[in-house]
Amino acid sequence: MLLKKQTKKMIAPVVITVLVISYFVFYMWLGLAGSGDIPLLMKILLIVVPSGLIVLMVYLLVERVNEIKEDDDDDLSKY
């Protein structure tokens, strides 16, 4: 029963992370493939900024999963 409760809590963060990462990948692809002659600085920004945000999203997902595994109840239920 405990595994099912943790698994249910992990579904939303994983789905949101996948959707946001797919948005960033699409944004990188659209920015780089859609325009022909863009400056090098713009190409670098179109790769670095979304890549950094993807890394941040994965880090936040790992933090959330660790939080769920600790099995602490929500803060509101403590009051």
From TrEMBL:
What does the UniProt keyword field contain? Membrane, Transmembrane, Transmembrane helix
Membrane-crossing residue ranges in chain numbering: 12-32, 44-62
Q: Which domain of life is it from?
A: Bacteria
Full protein name: Uncharacterized protein
Organism from which the protein derives? Trichococcus patagoniensis
Taxonomic classification: Bacteria, Bacillati, Bacillota, Bacilli, Lactobacillales
